[in-house]
Amino acid sequence: MECGTHSALGVTSVGPRAYLSGCSIEDDVFLATGATVFNKARVGKGSEVRVNGLVHLRTVLPPYSMVPIGWVAVGDPATILPSSEHDRIWSIQKPLDFPRVVFGVDRPPPGETMMPNVMPRYGMSLQSHKTDEVL
Question: pTM above 0.85?
């Protein structure tokens, strides 16, 4: 299912303050309070993303996997790391190309910002949600 919470085959539990964006969530998944699943990530059947766990952009979390409290899953297949492993996470995350995938812009050279290119695009994309219904 695409960022959903229920299908005919199984149930997925999405906790309070969880954030799902453009991802695929299979059946029988538990996404705890504060869990984050980014764009084009896939969370396999029966997996758990525990409190404040994160599944990064374009990451594939195999079925029956578990992301511990506050840890980060990144890559395809996912490598699951504590947030303190920033350099290792970044070495896997950088080629996943967050700016291109999410905002359609190139990553700027070091010391420069992508914000002048990102914000107008992001603002326009948010306009498509102005008639969304709150559930």
Answer: no
